[in-house]
Amino acid sequence: MSEEQEHARPDLPTELDRLVEELGRVRALGLPRLHEAELATLRSRVADGRGEPEAVERMLHTVVLGLDGELLRDAALHSFGFASGTRDRSGKERRARAAHVYGVGAERFRKHQEKLMLHQVARAVLNFAGHDPAPVVPDLGGGSSESATAPVRAGRHVLRAAFAHGDVLLTLHVAPIELVTGVDVLVSSENIYFEMSKTFRRTVSGSLRRAGATKDAVGRITDDVIARQLADWVRTFGVPGLPVAAGTVAVTSPGALSAQGVRRILHAAVATPSAKGDGYETAPAAVAAAVRRVFQLAAAERRTGRVPLRSIALPLLGAGRGGLDARTSAETVVGTLEQVLKADPDWSVHLVTRNPLSARTVIDVVTDRHP
């Protein structure tokens, strides 16, 4: 071969290139059809040398959970079908949900963010240390042998809580709260001024605000529905610019979230601006008061017969930017649920966190209650 021919010859695909191509196939086909894909490079990266689809899926899920950056991680979880309610969705539907994470249209996501995501996942696979996560046991009524520090895989998990008045099933969603479907009431964590987070924030408040807004064809917000209605609530029941008592709960419609079965957003004012800086502080007593008030308001509306409310989804109120650690928030929420459900057991209760390690904390808190 001449020197000219050697220089004209196209570069052979690198291992990274092959991984990107194979990950694109996985994204398009979905996890239930993983066995149909030609994934020689991905299979070669499985720690124990086996190439079964289940082993590839476990490795890929571990890699995605370890991605640096919430947007990237959430988009990947939805793209590949690890997020709650996405496993059996079409590639088109999963792409739309991943695009929603970035707040862009599906076509723009395909041309830009999706390419970046596939490359980042491919690089993470190349650097994969080879440790598969322990399997998650959905029903933990009999206890779990999982590592106390292992992240919980994305999706929906049923937990049996041993309350004093009897066992109660709680559903844990490891997913962004705005993607939870089929639940009547979503609870948002707010500050005591009822000022929702900006729509670009990855907080519960900002995510629900963004998801509930009306948008035009290119994704621009035309009506900030939930924030507008919350401001109306403050003008009616409070004083704009002045704080409400910690634990106060306000009610708004779900805005555009009604399309996925949500009937109400209940806003729990639990976070107080810190006197020490720009952050917030949250007292466990405020979280407990807010949880009780959420169920009081939902029950009152249910009694009117206008809206048949039966299910409520709660985040870890006050955790994260609210200044409360996940363990304290989970213990307070679960402990208050025991009191609430003893008095009014006719509720389906869901707990929601997008953080796999916080999800592990929730499971620990629930299972620690078992004798």
TrEMBL record:
InterPro entries for this protein: Macro_dom, Macro_dom-like
Source organism superkingdom: Bacteria
Domain Macro, first and last residues per copy: 148-371
SUPFAM superfamilies recorded: Macro domain-like
PROSITE patterns: MACRO
Pfam families membership: Macro
Protein name (database record): Macro domain-containing protein
Originating organism: Streptomyces phaeolivaceus
Lineage, top ranks: Bacteria, Bacillati, Actinomycetota, Actinomycetes, Kitasatosporales
